[in-house]
Automatic annotation (TrEMBL), chain A:
Keywords: Membrane, Transmembrane, Transmembrane helix, Transport. InterPro entries: MetI-like (IPR000515), MetI-like_sf (IPR035906), Sugar_ABC_transporter (IPR052730). Belongs to the binding-protein-dependent transport system permease family. It is a multi-pass membrane protein. Its main location: membrane. Residues 1-41 are annotated as: Disordered. Residues 109-314 form the ABC transmembrane type-1 domain. GO terms for biological process: transmembrane transport. This is ABC transporter permease. It comes from the Bacteria. GO terms for cellular component: plasma membrane. It comes from Micromonospora globispora.
Automatic annotation (TrEMBL), chain C:
Belongs to the binding-protein-dependent transport system permease family. Keywords: Cell membrane, Membrane, Transmembrane, Transmembrane helix, Transport. GO terms for cellular component: plasma membrane. It is a multi-pass membrane protein. This is Sugar ABC transporter permease. CDD domains: TM_PBP2. Residues 70-263 form the ABC transmembrane type-1 domain. It comes from the Bacteria. It is found in: Cell membrane. The lineage of its organism: Bacteria, Bacillati, Actinomycetota, Actinomycetes, Micromonosporales. The chain crosses the membrane at residues 12-32, 74-93, 105-126, 138-161, 182-205, 242-263. GO terms for biological process: transmembrane transport. Coiled coil: none annotated.
Length: 331, 402, 278
């Protein structure tokens, strides 16, 4: 058995031994600070593999989003109507002026904002209730979860048609409850129906995101709270909500941005009639119906900026709780 | 089979933290070496560097004389047993054990016979076609061992392989591991935070703290001749008692009375920069009920009287806790040890002294008892450096040595 | 007393369950019911059909219009799902297992894309695809689908991959596997359930899309069912298309219902595991 060690010994703590004399240690130490120059074979292979594996996904995502976005900024600075292709020319910010002074744009913007705020607020409440139900119900948990997934999975257009026919006078079981009036021909009732359809479709998704947060609330914490004398409501507000806060914020962020894109339901339910267009609907109409690429692109850019601002505000407001800022990736 | 040499091996992370600092260690062919220390001491990092699962920042690692710093784990020919066992859940026990051989492209018959053989050694034969999910903790542990031994590697690395077992099984598996290692004669590096495992299993024990090696040696040597306060406190259960001692008039003033010191120690303490405050360490078994000590023995120690707090009867002997007055011993090492035991901020009141007295002692809780302790077994530590002052040429010699 | 309260609690929960189930199913049942009504009773306003008929289904399968759309839908969704899951799995493996610079950036970018307003892409893509000859073709839809499915796939899969014990890969390396072998022989079999779940989620996403489908197609060459539905006119011009639309809607709802019924547990765990990580 060969003998051992020049142990660092008690008098030399890890810190004390560090300074300079040992030149074997010095280069690597410096390199470590300058960030990893001498990488072992292993480490380099790991990085190469990492890049290699991510490259295709990253490439597709960037090619299909980044380039078009830049291209649409370029288009938005031009007069470009496919019906009059010879009139194509660079006009600077004129399209922006046109859109931003246009009453239809602001109406659509207002409609979109209204739908977003109302549906997300209602969905949060209903979603929380549904999440609690799915999480805590004593009976039929599987059935409730299956049922909740139906609206999530179903094609939005299909659901939209279902609502449309339900509110069509004569045909619909719901329209007939209201004396056969035609709610989809009036602005207020149309908007209400659009929101109903949106809420029906996306509450389950909200609930699932919230349920993931609920699962993080330790059961013992709730037991401790009830032995400490907290009522059910106090347990919910003082124990569950604080623990769930990150999950709630994630759910809110996703749903807000998603709601802002509202399109399918409006397309089928009202086709934007009676001033019920959302911004997406308006952009689509200008582009595909009107074939006005310049104006359509301008709206695209404006919508993109709005969404970016909303996302930025969320991330700023909620700081570290925002998704993507967690360090869980690194292990 | 091979020897393993660590030559000034260090691990630094990009953020500047040093996990392992200049570790020098020569592990002989066939030797069983234990790396032990509190969590965060760098023992697992050291093991992972030997395995090739973590890069070595500086220094050199040689296996069988060959530098392997930049070799992938698969090219080092070493097997590892993980704390979580890391059994592949989608494979049966047989497939788990055959996996390394199949990767090495061994022919099917050889694989079969080697797996059968390993299964027999570990008494896994009836379980070969089960999935890991259907095994008990102890069985899983044995499968993990089986997977390591089938390919007859140059060395075994074990990362706290028993810590997920319950206490009884752990003791049982300890002997299995020990027997297996002796049978195979394969060089083994074993990481644990449990000092009992370290004492019972290894040929040699490496005690680590804060990334640095504190002491290397056979278990008994570390127990009897700890180089510093940390080693002294870490090894032994119940652990060594530490008392504050002030150097006054060639004596040590302690809560147990004035302890005389020998010539050599006196010379050491006469130096101008010698510490005036020391920490006195004494293990529980070096106390005895004063009434049970014969005169011959009595001369080698001294006595004190103190109130008995608690008596724990172990059958073979009694653990008796005394309350003693006086200042508490304090040093960075002691705080660290307390933190590792999870008691850093739970100190109780006053100093408590743990003694291990003969079972015949009639000691009762609440009474005052006269206790003798052995001056030849006393250790004295410098609180600022932790160094054991009673150590002379590597051997501890008590307070009275000339 | 204890049993009494639990019975009452059960009843209460049961009642809530029923409300949810009814609320979730009514629109689906309604459109199914419409699809079985005869033209004469279609506008009677009753929830259940008085006379049952399969005529609407015969109608849609008699014309090429719906069958073409169905083939487009299935083909486009399957190809996009396959590609997105393969690319997503590669990236998710790298994100959850390897350490390399640029990882955070990738995670950030895919998060941005997940929240991206699709309509912003419609105009540039419309123009770019027209120039490249991709407009109104399968690849013209598959590409954006892959793009928007990738964040979903990457998040869900990295959440699944992170649940696989890290030690296993180390153990495989110690057992002599290369990084590639560790992936194929140890991680991939364990990841299969996650891959499957992700595939379902991605498929639902592609199956569902409407905006790209009506913007980037113009004929039945590549129009998918949701887009085709909005252009449905029935067998002849004078026929009310309601029954046919409902029948077609029911047909494309069937796969969703089947997924949900058989894989409820997986879908829920897929959606929630991705969500916890964000």
């Amino acid at each position: 058995m060969s003998i051992n060690a020049t142990p660092a010994g008690a008098e030399v703590t890890a810190e004390a031994e560090r300074p300079g004399g040992r030149h074997a240690a010095v280069p690597a130490q410096r390199a470590g600070r300058r960030a990893r120059t001498p990488l072992s074979e292993n480490k380099r292979a790991e990085r190469r593999l990492g890049w290699l594996l991510c490259a295709p996904a990253a490439l597709v995502m960037v090619l299909v989003t980044a380039y078009p976005i830049i291209y649409s900024v370029w288009l938005s600075l031009q007069r470009f109507d496919l019906r009059f292709p010879d009139q194509r020319e660079f006009i600077g910010l004129e399209n922006y002026a046109t859109v931003l002074t246009n009453q239809f744009w602001w109406t659509a913007f207002g409609v979109t904002a209204l739908i977003t705020v109302v549906t997300v607020a209602i969905e949060l409440v209903l979603g929380m209730a549904l999440a609690l139900l799915m999480h805590r119900t004593l009976v039929g948990r599987g059935i409730v979860r299956t049922a909740a997934l139906i609206p999530y999975g179903i094609v939005t257009v299909v659901a939209a048609f279902s609502w449309r026919y339900a509110w069509t006078p004569g045909t619909g079981y719901l329209a007939n409850l209201f004396d056969g009036s035609a709610p989809l021909t009036e602005r207020a009732s149309s908007l209400a129906i659009i929101m109903l359809a949106e809420i029906w479709k996306t509450t389950p998704f909200m609930a699932l995101l919230l349920m993931a947060g609920l699962a993080l609330v330790p059961e013992d914490l709730l037991k401790a709270a009830s032995t400490d004398g907290a009522t059910a409501w106090q347990r919910f507000t003082k124990v569950m909500l604080p623990v769930m806060k990150p999950a709630i914020l994630v759910a809110l962020l996703f749903r807000t941005l998603d709601a802002f894109r509202v399109f399918d339901n409006i397309f089928v339910l009202t086709a934007g009639g009676n001033e019920t267009s959302s911004v997406s609907m308006l952009a689509y109409n200008n582009l595909i119906r009107g074939l006005n690429l310049g104006i359509g692109s301008t709206m695209s850019v404006l919508i993109f900026l709005t969404v970016a601002i909303i996302a930025f505000v969320f991330v700023k407001l909620f700081g570290t709780a925002a998704p993507g800022s967690d360090d869980g990736e690194r292990r | 089979m091979a020897d393993i040499v660590l030559d000034k091996v260090s691990k630094r992370y990009p953020d500047g933290t040093v996990a392992v600092q200049d570790v020098d260690l020569e592990i002989a062919d066939g030797e069983f070496v234990i790396l032990v220390g509190p969590s965060g001491c760098g023992k697992s990092t050291t093991l992972n560097m030997i395995a090739g699962l973590e890069d070595i920042s500086s220094g050199e690692l040689r296996i069988a004389g060959e530098r392997v710093n930049d070799k992938a784990p698969r090219d080092r020919d070493i097997a590892m047993v993980f704390q979580s066992y890391a059994l592949y859940p989608n494979m049966t026990v047989r497939e788990n054990m055959a996996f390394p051989l199949r990767l090495a492209k061994v022919d099917k018959e050889t694989i079969d016979s080697k797996v059968e053989e390993a299964a027999k050694v570990l008494e896994l034969t009836p379980l070969l076609d089960r999935k890991p999910a259907n095994l008990s903790g102890g069985q899983r542990q044995r499968v993990a061992m089986g997977r390591a031994i089938v390919r007859q590697p140059k060395a075994f690395l074990m990362d706290e392989p028993l810590s997920n077992l319950d206490a009884k099984l752990r003791v049982q598996m300890r002997t299995v591991v020990s027997r297996l290692q002796k049978q195979l004669g394969t060089t083994t590096v074993y990481v644990t935070h449990d000092q009992t495992e370290a004492m019972t299993l290894g040929d040699r024990v490496v005690i680590m703290r804060g990334g640095a090696v504190q002491q290397v040696g056979p278990p008994q040597e570390l127990y009897d001749h700890p180089r510093n306060l940390f080693v002294a406190g870490f090894i032994g259960s119940p652990s060594m008692n530490f008392l504050h001692a002030a150097v006054e008039d060639g004596k040590l003033r302690t809560a147990l009375g004035d302890v005389p010191i020998g010539e050599r120690l006196r010379r050491q303490l006469d130096g101008a920069d010698a510490p005036r405050e020391l920490i006195l360490g004494i293990r529980p078994e070096h106390f005895e009920d004063a009434g049970l000590v014969d005169d011959d023995t009595r001369r080698r120690g001294m006595e004190f009287e103190a109130p008995v707090e608690i008596v724990e009867s172990m059958g073979s002997d009694k653990y008796v806790y005394f309350t003693v007055e006086g200042e508490r011993a304090s040093a960075a090492e002691l705080e660290e040890l307390a933190a590792d035991a999870g008691a850093a901020d739970f100190t109780g009141t006053g100093a408590s002294l743990v003694t291990r007295l003969s079972a015949e002692s009639p000691v009762r809780e609440g009474e005052n008892r006269r206790v003798w302790f052995n001056l030849e077994k006393i250790h004295l530590f410098d609180p600022s450096t932790g160094r054991n002052l009673t150590l002379h040429e590597g051997r501890a010699s008590g307070a009275l040595a000339d | 007393m204890a049993t009494e309260t639990t019975t009452r609690a059960k009843l209460r929960w049961g009642l809530l369950d029923v409300i949810v189930v009814v609320f979730a199913f009514i629109p689906v049942l309604w459109i199914a019911s419409l699809s079985f009504k005869t033209p004469a009773t279609l506008a009677d306003g009753k929830f259940w059909p008085r006379e049952w008929t399969l005529d609407n289904y015969r109608t849609i399968f008699a014309t090429d219009q719906f069958i073409r759309a169905l083939v487009n839908s299935i083909g486009i969704a399957l190809i996009a799902t396959l590609v997105a899951v393969v690319l997503g799995a590669m990236a998710a493996y790298a994100i959850s297992r390897l350490d390399f610079p640029g990882k955070k950036l990738l995670v950030g970018v895919s998060l941005l894309i997940a929240m991206f307003p699709q309509v912003s892409l419609v105009s540039p893509l419309f123009e770019i695809e027209r120039q490249l000859g991709l407009f109104d073709t399968w690849p013209g839809l598959i590409l954006p689908y892959i793009t928007f499915a990738l964040p979903l796939a990457i998040y869900t899969l990295s959440a699944f991959f992170k649940q696989i014990p890290w030690d296993l890969e180390k153990a495989a390396k110690m057992d002599g596997a290369t990084q590639g072998q560790a992936f194929r022989r140890v991680i991939a079999p364990l990841a299969a359930p996650g891959l499957f779940t992700t595939a379902i989620l991605v498929f639902i996403f592609c199956w569902n899309d409407f905006l790209f489908a009506i913007s980037l197609t113009s004929t039945e060459r590549s129009r998918t069912v949701p887009a085709a539905l909005s252009f449905f006119t029935g067998a002849s011009q004078f026929e009310d298309p309601t029954g046919a639309i409902c029948a077609a809607a029911v047909v494309i709802t069937i796969p969703i219902i089947l997924f949900v019924l058989f894989f409820q547990r997986r879908i829920v765990s897929g959606l929630t595991s991705g969500a916890v990580k964000g």
